[in-house]
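Q: You know discrete backbone vocabularies at least as well as I do. I have my own habits and do not want them to colour yours. No explanation is needed for now; the record alone will do.
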Amino acid sequence: MNYRNTEMKLDQLLTYLNQGKINLSPAFQRGHVWPVKTRSKLVANMILGRPIPAIFLYKEPSGSRYSYNILDGKQRIESLILFVGPGTDDLGLPTWADYFFEPEVRKNVSFPVDLPTGKRTFKQLDEGTIADLREYSIPTIEINLGDSTHLDEIIDLFVDINQQGVAVSRFQIVKAMGEENALLQSVFDLVALQQQRGQDVFYKSKTSEFSGVLRRLSIVANMTDNNAAIDRIWERLLEVALFVRTLEHRKPVEVLKRFIRAREPEAALTKAETRQLRNVFRFLRTAYKTKLGEMRLATDQTHFYTMVTALIASDLMDLPQASLTKRLIAFGRVVDGGPLPNSKSLQRIFEQYLEISSKQTTDVSRRVERQRLFIQAIREL
């Protein structure tokens, strides 16, 4: 890879965006994760002439011209797009909406910024301020890819330079490096469809037992960005799918490293593996209509992982559904802080289970032991 330190005036950046020359959605990029407050602060600094961090672009030939993919600085560029919006007669982004499909993001177009003179939208800036802003030079590092450059080199660089905003997750890296991985794609196909909407990539959630169950997890329910929420659903289901395939527990980081370092891609889910997953998640979707759906077994990823892998690895699913649901609710009450059962044997089981659920929750040996205790408790309840 070759690097060139340069600058790009805002005027030129807007021209490139209107021409569709900058791709803001390569595989490893995140969704629209910056809140308006952060976007507003960035733009205010630019209007006041203060420096901002460099954006990194990698350049690729596209016919008789070059196109650019954003490597670092996606959120900064998106902030400028939303601030300028359709703009004025002589400076604006008629194509701004192509970069944002979701209404929740689009509604922030033309957001105001706090300036010494008060709150101002782009259209409310005076001509002198707009003239200065269009001349603002954004530090830019262009990366030229050689024929021998691999995607993992680009992603390594992305991780190294990504110091601002929301850090990239390992799963974003797995998505980029495993685009052709059949297992990764077959798991995604269970929960969503990927659609290109203008310059934006949108995940359309499928109404299924998988999304219905996994959206109860607090780490998913608390996400405001649609694509980011589906990424988390995808990641959690991938972990469970690998357990179905191997019946082996792994740390989440090892699940992801399996894809990053794989010499051969994982095969797609088989019909039998998909059927086993569906059976467990269909049961849980029905069981969640009871009190179970509001308990930590449903909302906390540590307890959920234990519950779902226990159902996969044991014969608990052979119990009548009503009986199994009742036992899970009884287990959930204790996890949620309720009293221990009267049985001395069950008391010991729960005490051990709660102790190894309090720290180092992804440790493989602790996952194995929690599963064993969970199955034992459900059988005795």
Summary: The first strand starts at residue 2 and ends at 9. Confidence is low (pLDDT under 50) at residues 163-168. The CA atoms of residues 82 and 165 lie 17 Å apart. The chain has 18 helices and nine strands.
